[in-house]
Every structure is written in structure tokens, then in C-alpha cells.
């Protein structure tokens, strides 16, 4: 045993650390409100997010939440309102990694902007919300965590106050978000009405006991509305409309943050709610239909809409936004493939995909941030010939693009391959086929970008481009992780499968 | 001799090292890379002799060294799993072939010093690297213990001959000849590959030897009366055997895939010596000998082998009669001689076929190197009508060449006589029972006459008479590096026949058939790969004219008579101070023969008249239908993409409406399916 037994509440350490960092930033800001000292602010934010990452990794390695022989068991806090298990830690790691990358990259991107302290503290507050989502175990804590993640996000998207696109995107994001929250909240109340409980485990026991049988329509509607709220957070069809505009209008690091961390947090809720609260067979017995059907439909439609819309975009950021919708579709296979037996494989594959995606997609958006930092423009043509000026970053971009497209031997290939094979094993032939077709299509627009930077001749002659340290560091780290996640896939696979098995 | 086989891989690896060294550093080495090649092949020769000694002391070696792929497919005969390996099989046959190949390769390397270096050729590192890789491929092919490994090195041998035939790539003819050699042999190898796949899929193994070899499996299947792929086992063995034979016919230049070999003369003469005597062409016949047990199971395949061999022997011999280029004559003689080997193997004369393979390796290497010497002497003139009278000016070349010619013509007691006679004898005793074999025998016998004729026509035109050109009067001197290999091979061409004096043994009743004992496993051997074991598999009946002795005498007498008459006719016509061409006396037949029976023409027609239009049609199909579908898909995708893009109007109320619509649609669908209403 450990020489010192930590108190139980420290299990939420990663989330608490993020919150503490956000507050520390507020303190700095209130001491010197006009400060734009980037070194101090970004330094605090980076330290905080890396500390959260370290603690999450440490907990995960030390066996917090693991149910095995040398594990500490699943830790329940506040009468089960929060739960810290392998799943929670796994997603806290993803959130913390993306936050760290984004914060480091923002050091250069936000140079010269006002509201520096607000920016960093909002990012960390949103990250706190996302980390809390990973551990939330009751519909009400889930909703609060979700709002904690969402509200700073709205502000972050529109933080470029003198930029019309940014402000407009923020407003749209907020309006769609409000609608989605309403729907989600209504879903919570319907589920509460049907079962009388908010805590996930209790809902499940009511359903399993058959006490909710009289409210089949009510419960079904509630579940459907919950799906709606989750679809909003994960940018899945039909709640995806905010994503292209928000990602395009937002500062590029924020787009990276929202499309990677926020999406992952949305998925952890989905995984937890649908496996803990609505056990497959019992729920099907009540509402008369297997809820995976809804996810099968959503997965196929989402990946198709995302990829098809991405194919003809001219604007790189918007293309990435749609590609992010497409990837949400891939990750939804994790829920679509859940079945009475053997669901943890496909869910584990989806979780691996989210982790790899956290690196490659963040990296891709950070490259866009770099391009915006250089001021080269937004369309594919504007990116022409960048490879000659900035070979390192463009090489990293090629890695991101090919990994997103799923080209071996990059990380994106392996996670997609696991998704594909486990979908086949789960018997989801249509979904697997859609995955392949969409991946093939996605290669078209991803390679278009690689072609632009490496093969095409630049439209205008450019001067030498600067090499901002923070952005470069974040991009290179993301690229390296995208590549080395492959050899390291052994432990990652184990962790993901263990995390999935913890709740299935 | 325990443990010497541990060094067996080095036999093949020495030349590979030489290849790498020469390729990397050849330009900086003295003699431009000849020395590493000579050292490596010399080392291979020594090790091969050690292996032969080990086999002679009663051992054999069969070891899998590396498994590079394994699968869990179930074969047609129910074997679970198939694995592909690299392994060594050194039995009497392989040991013999190792010595032959490394000896010829070594001598060719030495000869090259005089033929290539002394003549100031450029690109020598490339040449020696090619020779090294060639030798490596052939040696590895010889020791291969399974069919797939054999195929891999068989292909590598083909590649190397492509590289070396096209050595003078700046000329017009050499690259074209190289391409032709590559494509024609590749055509045969295509069937070989299918055969390998078929055998692997049928028996779940590609091993040559051991209890789990495909030969044993095939025998079991035939004995058990199995049905394989809808055929009975015997027919299926015939089919797969013929597929593999496709590769043999291409490589060993048998009719109808012989057309590449005469053109392959465009390479350096040393390369021709290597190709004809010990590597490329020998590979085909060696493969038949290597998997002889498999062919022995199928009388149909054997009869086809025998008939093709007999036909090729005669067919090529007639073409050799009218050629004017000394190397062309030798090329057709090679085709013809390999026909004999196929005939010998096809009639079940395993020892006779291998015996002729060995003798031919010596005398054909000798003849080619002799021709190379003549070409050096003649300042690179190859037309025999411009030579003459070299007898006195280059005595070493003349007498060694003469020894090779006597062996080739099959004159007693030179080596070629003994092996050719044994083949014809084996064919005769089977032919007395089987009319098809009789026909093959008759063709083989007739070819003896033509062989004698064209061989001595070549000798007389080249060496006898008066010099017919200025260079012939003033020959270029040749050095020791040319003479030494000629002398070694000359001695072998004279005495190699002692290895198996079968007629003498049968007539005098003495036990001097050493090669037969060697191949029959009286020393070391692998079980099942012996002459006796093969004999038990064969289904041929044999009979004699009168007694065995009488038959031996009749066969030997007939072939000697024909050889002498052929040589005598050449003597009459061409052993004159000023010989003249007699081709026009042949009339229209001569024209047909000079044009090689229009074999090239019809093959070119096949390529241009038949394959090309077909390829064009396929191309059109690809361009229109396939590409059309592909383009259509992308057009449809992009169109769809454009539509989906328009969903995003930018107006937030539209989004809200669409979200609500989406939820309602989902609600209706799920509610309907779940029966909520």
C-alpha cells in the first residue's frame, strides 16, 4: 500500500487542478487587470494543465479506479454523484493533453491580444467542465458539468471581439447550444419522471426491475432527447450545425480545443450514460426498441454528412470542421456496436480513436493557427507551396492529414482499423462499409491539403516565415505522438479496453 | 565429415558478397572487380568439392534455415497449414550440380580477365557484379529444398541473364535480345508460378524431399484414388507437372520457347558460356531432375517431356546447319543438346539425363570459351566465312576446341558420346514398347547426324583451310587467362565420360557406372531421391532387341554411324583450302531453315497481331468503362458534397428548424418502431 493514503476527494485531482489553475489566473488578473504578460499567464495555464495531465496519468498507472488485484477499486464521491474509474481517467488524460497543447500554442497565437488572462482562465474552466463530465455519474452533475464546459466555450469562440466572424460564430454557437441544452434538460426531466432517479445506477436498477414499464413512451422520448444533447456536444448530425461556423470563426487553437477535447468529453457522457443508466436488454424491453439503432443511424449519417461536406470546401478550417463531424461519426460506432456481448471491443476502439484524434486533429487545427499567425490566408490556394518555407510544420501537417485519412502506419490507421474490425465482429456490416467508403472519400480532401503545401507552386512569392516557438512545439509534439502512439499502442489498447470494460 | 554442411550456405553467399563488394567498390578495385568474383567462386568451388566429398562419405543434408511465411490454410489433401521456407537440400544430385556450376563460374571469371579486361571494356564492375549475382542465384537455386525457393532463384537467374545479355546496352541489338530473353522465359515462368501455387494449394507443402514433400503427398493421393479439384489425382499431378514444365521449357529453351536463346548471343561470350553451360538453361533441366519423382508419377508428362525433347533436338540441329556466326551455331547446338537431356529424363533415364547435363556443361563451356578465344584472335569477328586457317596460329585454342567439338558430335571416346548414347539407349528400350517414345527416339537419332555435320562444319570453317580475311592472317595473341580455362575444360571434355561408361559396363560386365551409383545413393543420399526410388515410380515397360548386349551395340553403332557420317559429310564439303557455301543446294528448304522455320515471325505475329489488339481493347475498356465508373463516382460524390454543403445556410433559425426536424424524424421513426404511440 501507499505510505500515505490520500483522502478520497483527491481522486478528482485532475479536474480540481484545472479549476485551481483557472482561479489562479483570475487572481493574477484581478491583481493586475491590464496585464498582458504572456509568459506568466501561459506559464500558469501550461503548468496547471500539465499537472492535471501528470496526475491523471499517475492515477491511471497507479491503479486508481481499476478493479483488479492491485487497483484501488472504483471511487465513488458525494454519494455516487461522481465516479472515478478508468474511463474517467482515460478521458481526463485526453482533455488534459489537448488543453496543454492548446495552451502552449496559444502563447504565440494570442500574442498582442487583449483579454489574455480571461482567455486562459476560460480555457481552463472549460477544461475543468470537460474533466468533470468524465467523472459525472448522475444526470444532474452531467448537466452542470456540460454547462461548465459549454459556457466558457461560447465566450472563447467569440473572444476575438473585433472580428465579425468570431462574434457571429459565438452567437450562433450559443443559440444552438441553448436549444440543445433545453432539449437535453427536458430529456433529463422525462427520464426522471419515468424512473424517479437522476443517478445513473439507480435509473438502471429501476428499468431492470421493470418499474418503468408503464412509461415506455416517456422514457423513450427522454432517451432520445438525451441523445440530442450528446449529439450537440459531439457535433453529430443533426446537432452539428454550429460546428462549421464556430470552428471557422473561433481562434484556431479554440477550434482545436472544441473539436478534440470537447468532443471527447461529449463521448464520455454518451458512453457512461448509455452503458450505466440504460442497460441494453432491459431498456429495449421497456421502450420496445434497441437504442443502438439510433446510434447506428446517427453514426452513418454523421460520417457521411461530415465527409461529403468536407470534400468540396475551399476553406481549410471549414474542411477540418466538417472532417471533425465525420470523425464524430466514426466514434459513434463505439455506441452503435454495443450489444449484449462483446461491446467493449468496439467501444475500446472508439476510445482509442478519440485519443489518437486528440493528437492528430489538434495538430491539424494548430497548423491552421500557425497559418493564421503567419497571415497566409484561409483557402487551399493560400496554403500552396508552404512546404518549401516551413518544411517541419508542413511535414507534421502531412502526418496529421494522412493519419486522419487512416493511412498506415500512422496512429489514425490503427484506431480506424480497430473500429472497422470490431464493427465487423459486432455484425455491423453497413456501418463498417460506410466507414470504409467515407475514409476513402476523406483521403481526397486530406491529400488535397498535403498536395497544396508540398506540390503546388505558391500563388505569390512569400518572404521567410517566422517560427513561433510555442506553436511549433505543440505541433511537433502532436505529430510525434501521432506517430509513436503506434508502437505505444500496446498499453494504450490495454488501457482503452480496460476503461471500456469497466462500464460495459 | 560431421558439421561441414554448416558451411553449405556459404557456397551461395560467397558470390553474393562478391556482388555487393563489386557493386559498391568495383571501380576502385584492381581488375575492376574480377578478383572478388574469382576469389568468391573459387571459394564456392572448394566448398562444393568438400560437400561432394561429404556426400561421398555417406552423408546428405536437408535442413530448413528460415521460415518466412506461414498460413493456416487447409490444402486439398487435408493438410493443415502451409509454410514457406528457405532451406538447403544437398544430396548427390545437388552436390554434383554445385561442383559443375561453381567450376564453370570460376573458369568464366578467370577467362573474363582475358576476354573483358584485356580488351579494355568499360562498365566492368557492372559486368562482374552481374556475374556474381548470377552465380549466387544459380547456386541458391541448386541447393533449394522447396519449389517456391527454387522459383524465387529461378526468377533471379532470369533477371541476371537479362542484365548480362543486355550488358552492351548502347547497341541496338543487345537490349532487344535481353528483353526477348526476359519476356520469353517469363512467359514460361508464368505457368511455373501457377504450378507452384497449384502444388502448394493441393498438397499444403512445396518441399522437394522428406515425408512431407509434395512428391510423397502426390503418391499417396494417387494410391488413395483421391479426387483433387474435380480431377482424379493422376490427372491433377499431370496438370500441375505440366504447369511447372512451362518454366522449364522457357528456361531450357525447348520448342516452342527456344527463340530467345540464339538472340542471347548479343551478350559477352563469357556470359553465353555461363548461360549455356551451367546456369540459365541448365536450370530448367535441373528442375526436372530435382523433382523427378513428381514427374515419374505421371507417364503423360514424361512422354510429353520426351517428345518435346526429341523434337527440339532435331529441330534445333537442322537450324544449326546453315548458320554463319560461330556463336549462332553453338546456340542452336545448345538447344539441341538440352533436347537430348529432356529426352533422356522423359524416358526415365534419370542418370543419363544428368550425365549429359554434366558432360554438356563441360564441353559447351569449353566450346563457348573457345569461341570467345577465336573472337579475341579474330579481333571481334564472328562470321566463320571470314576465318579459316587458325589451326596453326592458335594451337591451344584449336585442340581444346576440337576436343569440345568431338564431345559435342558424340564421337567415341569423348565424353559427349557416352552420355548421348546412354540417352538414346534408354529411349530405344522404352521406345520398343511405346510408339510415342519411338518417334522421339527416331528424331533424337536423326539429330546425331546433323550434330556431327554442323559441329565439324564449324571446326573446318574456323580452323582449317586458308585464312579468308586479313585479320585471320594476323591473329591477336591470347594470354594464359584464356588458355588455362580452355585446357581445364578440354581435359574434362575428353575424360568426363569415365564417370559412367554404361555400354562398357553392360558389354564387359564390369562395375564401372560410378555416376549411377552416385545418383542411386550408394554413398550419401536423401531417402526417396534416388535412381532406384524413381525407377519404382516409373510406369514404363522396356524390352530389348535380342539381348541387352545386342541392344547396346545396335544403339551405339547407329548413333556412331550417324555421327561419323555427319562429320564425314562436313569433311567432304568444307575441309578444303577454299570452302564455298552449299546452302543454295538445299533450295527452298534452306531458306526456311535459315529463317529458323519462321518461329520468330509467328511469335512476333502472336505479339503484334493478337496480343496487341487485345491489349488495346482491354485498355479501351479500362479507359471508358472502368475509368468512367470511377470518374462517375467522384463526380457524384462531389455533386453530393456540394448539396450537403448547402445545408449550412448560415442562418441560425434554419439550423434550429433543422435540428427540431431531425429530432422529430428520429422520434417518429423510433417511436413507430418501439410502439410508443
UniProtKB/TrEMBL annotation, chain A:
Give the Gene Ontology MF terms in alphabetical order.
NADH dehydrogenase (ubiquinone) activity
Q: Where are the transmembrane segments?
A: 6-28, 40-67, 87-107, 119-136, 142-161, 173-198, 218-242, 254-274, 286-308, 320-340, 346-371, 392-414, 426-446, 470-489
Keywords in alphabetical order = Membrane, Transmembrane, Transmembrane helix
| A single GO cellular-component term on record | membrane
What is a biological process (GO) this protein takes part in? ATP synthesis coupled electron transport
NADH:quinone oxidoreductase/Mrp antiporter transmembrane domain boundaries: 136-442
Q: Which domain of life is it from?
A: Archaea
What Pfam families does the database record attribute to this sequence?
Proton_antipo_M (PF00361)
Per the record, membrane topology reads: Multi-pass membrane protein
- Main localization of the protein? membrane
Subcellular locations according to the entry: Membrane
Q: Which HAMAP family match?
A: NDH1_NuoN_1
Q: What is this protein called?
A: NADH-quinone oxidoreductase subunit N
Organism (species): Salinadaptatus halalkaliphilus
Automatic annotation (TrEMBL), chain B:
User: What's its membrane topology?
Assistant: Multi-pass membrane protein
Where is the protein localized? Membrane
Q: Which residues cross the membrane?
A: 12-30, 37-56, 93-115, 127-144, 150-169, 190-209, 229-250, 271-289, 301-322, 329-355, 361-378, 398-418, 438-463, 484-505, 550-574, 655-676
**Chief location of this protein?**
membrane
- InterPro entries given for it? NADHpl_OxRdtase_5_subgr, ND/Mrp_TM, NU5C-like, Proton_antipo_N
What keywords would UniProt list here?
Membrane, Transmembrane, Transmembrane helix
The superkingdom listed in its UniProt entry is Archaea
Any Gene Ontology biological process? electron transport coupled proton transport
The record's listing under NCBIfam families reads: NDH_I_L, PRK06590.1
Q: Could you identify this protein by its name?
A: NADH-quinone oxidoreductase subunit L
What organism is recorded for this protein?
A: Salinadaptatus halalkaliphilus
Amino acid at each position: 500500500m501507499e505510505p500515505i493514503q490520500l483522502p478520497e476527494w483527491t481522486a478528482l485531482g485532475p479536474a480540481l487542478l484545472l479549476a485551481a489553475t483557472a482561479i489562479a489566473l483570475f487572481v493574477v488578473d484581478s491583481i493586475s487587470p491590464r496585464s498582458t504578460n504572456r509568459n506568466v499567464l501561459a506559464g500558469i495555464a501550461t503548468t496547471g494543465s500539465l499537472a492535471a495531465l501528470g496526475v491523471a496519468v499517475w492515477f491511471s498507472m497507479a491503479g486508481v479506479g481499476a478493479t483488479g488485484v492491485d487497483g484501488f477499486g472504483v471511487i465513488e464521491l458525494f454519494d455516487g454523484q461522481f465516479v472515478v474509474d478508468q474511463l474517467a481517467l482515460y478521458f481526463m488524460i485526453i482533455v488534459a493533453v489537448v488543453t496543454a497543447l492548446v495552451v502552449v500554442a496559444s502563447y504565440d497565437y494570442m500574442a498582442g491580444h487583449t483579454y489574455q488572462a480571461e482567455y486562459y482562465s476560460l480555457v481552463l474552466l472549460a477544461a475543468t467542465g470537460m474533466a468533470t463530465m468524465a467523472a459525472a455519474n448522475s444526470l444532474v452533475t452531467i448537466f452542470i458539468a456540460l454547462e461548465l464546459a459549454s459556457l466558457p466555450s461560447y465566450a472563447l469562440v467569440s473572444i476575438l471581439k473585433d472580428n465579425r466572424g468570431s462574434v457571429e460564430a459565438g452567437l450562433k454557437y450559443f443559440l444552438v447550444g441553448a436549444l440543445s441544452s433545453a432539449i437535453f434538460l427536458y430529456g433529463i426531466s422525462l427520464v426522471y419522471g419515468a424512473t424517479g432517479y437522476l443517478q445513473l445506477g439507480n435509473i438502471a436498477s429501476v428499468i431492470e426491475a421493470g418499474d418503468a414499464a408503464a412509461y415506455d413512451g416517456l422514457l423513450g422520448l427522454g432517451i432520445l432527447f438525451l441523445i440530442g444533447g450528446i449529439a450537440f456536444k459531439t457535433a453529430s448530425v443533426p446537432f452539428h450545425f454550429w460546428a462549421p461556423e464556430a470552428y471557422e470563426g473561433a481562434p484556431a487553437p479554440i477550434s482545436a480545443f472544441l473539436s478534440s477535447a470537447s468532443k471527447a468529453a461529449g463521448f464520455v457522457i454518451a458512453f457512461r450514460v448509455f452503458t450505466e443508466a440504460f442497460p441494453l436488454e432491459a431498456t429495449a424491453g421497456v421502450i420496445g426498441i434497441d437504442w443502438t439503432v439510433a446510434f447506428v443511424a446517427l453514426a452513418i449519417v454523421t460520417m457521411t454528412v461530415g465527409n461529403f461536406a468536407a470534400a468540396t470546401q475551399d476553406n481549410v478550417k471549414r474542411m477540418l470542421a466538417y472532417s471533425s463531424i465525420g470523425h464524430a461519426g466514426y466514434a459513434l460506432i463505439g455506441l452503435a456496436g454495443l450489444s449484449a456481448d462483446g461491446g467493449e471491443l468496439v467501444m475500446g476502439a472508439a476510445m482509442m480513436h478519440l485519443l489518437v484524434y486528440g493528437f492528430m486533429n489538434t495538430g491539424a487545427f494548430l497548423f491552421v493557427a500557425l497559418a493564421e499567425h503567419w497571415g497566409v490566408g484561409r483557402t487551399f490556394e493560400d496554403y500552396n507551396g508552404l512546404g518549401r518555407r516551413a518544411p517541419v510544420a508542413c511535414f507534421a501537417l502531412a502526418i496529421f492529414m494522412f493519419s486522419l485519412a487512416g493511412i498506415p502506419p500512422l496512429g489514425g490507421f490503427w484506431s480506424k482499423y480497430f473500429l472497422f474490425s470490431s464493427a465487423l465482429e459486432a455484425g455491423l456490416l453497413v456501418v463498417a462499409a460506410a466507414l470504409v467508403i467515407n475514409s476513402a472519400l476523406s483521403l481526397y480532401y486530406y491529400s488535397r491539403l498535403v498536395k497544396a503545401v508540398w506540390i503546388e507552386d505558391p500563388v505569390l512569392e512569400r518572404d521567410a516565415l517566422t517560427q513561433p516557438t510555442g506553436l511549433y512545439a505543440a505541433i511537433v509534439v502532436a505529430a510525434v505522438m501521432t506517430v509513436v502512439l503506434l508502437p505505444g499502442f500496446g498499453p494504450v489498447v490495454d488501457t482503452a479496453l480496460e476503461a471500456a470494460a469497466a462500464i460495459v | 565429415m560431421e558439421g561441414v554442411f554448416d558451411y553449405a550456405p556459404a557456397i551461395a553467399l560467397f558470390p553474393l558478397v562478391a556482388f555487393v563488394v563489386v557493386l559498391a567498390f568495383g571501380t576502385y578495385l584492381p581488375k575492376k572487380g574480377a578478383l572478388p568474383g574469382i576469389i568468391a567462386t573459387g571459394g564456392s568451388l572448394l566448398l562444393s568439392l568438400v560437400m561432394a566429398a561429404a556426400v561421398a562419405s555417406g552423408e546428405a543434408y536437408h535442413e530448413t534455415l528460415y521460415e518466412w511465411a506461414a498460413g493456416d490454410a487447409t490444402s486439398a489433401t487435408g493438410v493443415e497449414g502451409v509454410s514457406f521456407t528457405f532451406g538447403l537440400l544437398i544430396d548427390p544430385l545437388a552436390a554434383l550440380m554445385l561442383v559443375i556450376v561453381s567450376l564453370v563460374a570460376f573458369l568464366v571469371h578467370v577467362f573474363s580477365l582475358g576476354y573483358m579486361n584485356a580488351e579494355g571494356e568499360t562498365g566492368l564492375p557492372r559486368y562482374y557484379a552481374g556475374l556474381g549475382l548470377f552465380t549466387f542465384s544459380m547456386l541458391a537455386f541448386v541447393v533449394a529444398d522447396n519449389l517456391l525457393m527454387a522459383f524465387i532463384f529461378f526468377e533471379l537467374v532470369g533477371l541476371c541473364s537479362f542484365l548480362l545479355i543486355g550488358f552492351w546496352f548502347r547497341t541496338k541489338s543487345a537490349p532487344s535480345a535481353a528483353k526477348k530473353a526476359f519476356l520469353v522465359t517469363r512467359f514460361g515462368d508464368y505457368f511455373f508460378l501457377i504450378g507452384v501455387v497449384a502444388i502448394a494449394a493441393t498438397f499444403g507443402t512445396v518441399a522437394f524431399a522428406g515425408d512431407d514433400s509434395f512428391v510423397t503427398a502426390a503418391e499417396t493421393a494417387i494410391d488413395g484414388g483421391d479426387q483433387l479439384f474435380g480431377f482424379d489425382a493422376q490427372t491433377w499431378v499431370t496438370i500441375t507437372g505440366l504447369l511447372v514444365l512451362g518454366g522449364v521449357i522457357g528456361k531450357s529453351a525447348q520448342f516452342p520457347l527456344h527463340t530467345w536463346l540464339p538472340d542471347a548471343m548479343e551478350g559477352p561470350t563469357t556470359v553465353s558460356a555461363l548461360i549455356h553451360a551451367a546456369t540459365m538453361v541448365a536450370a530448367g533441366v535441373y528442375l526436372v531432375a530435382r523433382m523427378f519423382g513428381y514427374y515419374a508419377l505421371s507417364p503423360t508428362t514424361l512422354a510429353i517431356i520426351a517428345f518435346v525433347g526429341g523434337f527440339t533436338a532435331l529441330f534445333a540441329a537442322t537450324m544449326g546447319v546453315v548458320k554463319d556466326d560461330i556463336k549462332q551455331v553453338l546456340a542452336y547446338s545448345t538447344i539441341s543438346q538440352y533436347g537430348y537431356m529432356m529426352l533422356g529424363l522423359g524416358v526415365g533415364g534419370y542418370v543419363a539425363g544428368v550425365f549429359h547435363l554434366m558432360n554438356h556443361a563441360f564441353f559447351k563451356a569449353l566450346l563457348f570459351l573457345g569461341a570467345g578465344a577465336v573472337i579475341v584472335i579474330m579481333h571481334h569477328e564472328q562470321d566463320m566465312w571470314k576465318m579459316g586457317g587458325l589451326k596453326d596460329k592458335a594451337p591451344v585454342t584449336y585442340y581444346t576446341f576440337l576436343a569440345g567439338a568431338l564431345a559435342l558430335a558424340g564421337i567415341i571416346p569423348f565424353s559427349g558420346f557416352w552420355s548421348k548414347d546412354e540417352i538414346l539407349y534408354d529411349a530405344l528400350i522404352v521406345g520398343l514398347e511405346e510408339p510415342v517414345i519411338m518417334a522421339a527416339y527416331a528424331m533424337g537419332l536423326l539429330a546425331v547426324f546433323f550434330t556431327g555435320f554442323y559441329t565439324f562444319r564449324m571446326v573446318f570453317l574456323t580452323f582449317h583451310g586458308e585464312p579468308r580475311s586479313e585479320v585471320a592472317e594476323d591473329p591477336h595473341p591470347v594470354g594464359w587467362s584464356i588458355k588455362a580455362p580452355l585446357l581445364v575444360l578440354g581435359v574434362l571434355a575428353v575424360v568426363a565420360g569415365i564417370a559412367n561408361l554404361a555400354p562398357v559396363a553392360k558389354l564387359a560386365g564390369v562395375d564401372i557406372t560410378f555416376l549411377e551409383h552416385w545418383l542411386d545413393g550408394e554413398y550419401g543420399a536423401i531417402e526417396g531421391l534416388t535412381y532406384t526410388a524413381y525407377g519404382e515410380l516409373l510406369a514404363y515397360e522396356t524390352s530389348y532387341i535380342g539381348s541387352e548386349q545386342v541392344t547396346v551395340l545396335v544403339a551405339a553403332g547407329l548413333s556412331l554411324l550417324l555421327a561419323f557420317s555427319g562429320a564425314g559429310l562436313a569433311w567432304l564439303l568444307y575441309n578444303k583450302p577454299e570452302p564455298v557455301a552449299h546452302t543454295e543446294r538445299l533450295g527452298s528448304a534452306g531458306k526456311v531453315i535459315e529463317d529458323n522455320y519462321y518461329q520468330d515471325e509467328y511469335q512476333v505475329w502472336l505479339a503484334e497481331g493478337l496480343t496487341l489488339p487485345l491489349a488495346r481493347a482491354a485498355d479501351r475498356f479500362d479507359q471508358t468503362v472502368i475509368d468512367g465508373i470511377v470518374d462517375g463516382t467522384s463526380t457524384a460524390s462531389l455533386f453530393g458534397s456540394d448539396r450537403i454543403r448547402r445545408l449550412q445556410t448560415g442562418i441560425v433559425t434554419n439550423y434550429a428548424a433543422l435540428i427540431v426536424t431531425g429530432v422529430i424524424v428520429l422520434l417518429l421513426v423510433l417511436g413507430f418502431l418501439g410502439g410508443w404511440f
